[in-house]
Amino acid sequence: MQSDEWLTAASCTVEGGDSFYADTQKAQDTARAACLGCPVLATCLLTAQDRERVAKERWGMAGGLTAQQRLGLMWEERVHGHRPDLDAARELLNPWWSNLLIQMRWKGRSFDDIVNRLDGVQANAATVRLALWWLGMPGTRVRPRQAGDPIGEAVRIAGLHEAEIQELRSLGASRNEVAAYLGVKLHIADRAVDRVTIADRAEVLEVAA
Ligand code: SF4
Fold it and tell me: pTM surpassing 0.85?
């Protein structure tokens, strides 16, 4: 097969092309639904990821993920060293597993907790994250905020993910890449990065004093 021959079977070449490049929630939901019924979804996602690792630029929907979600997966791979298993992620879309995933997520369980509950499915955290995104859920690394959680979102993220933020920054991740990895809005990631950076500086000054 020619390297781009698979494109002839792509759903987006015949339906809803504009929605693949719009950034409204409605357009993304429409595009994602088309992707999930597309016969070349796996090839599309893997090809986009290969291209984007080199080109470092990404746009539009590909393989059922937005550009920002694909950026998050790339950093997931860099930080944790694992890639999603696309077949396993597909399996997690069936009603039994998807209900479990959604319930556990809203109860504030971590990706690792969810992975441990998936008896019979070979899934890592990246696979769970991909399945959640395909389901139209937030695939955030940050657990959903619980009722009565007393502190602000950026403070909470800085506390829970301090080591990951430090590692991301030491690997050269921009603030937007930190936001993509965590799966949160840029202004929240921005404040969390500031908080971690200020804490780091304070520690350095304390040691030097
Ligand atoms: S997976 Fe989505 S973006 Fe990729 S070829 Fe199919 S419809 Fe187009």
Answer: yes
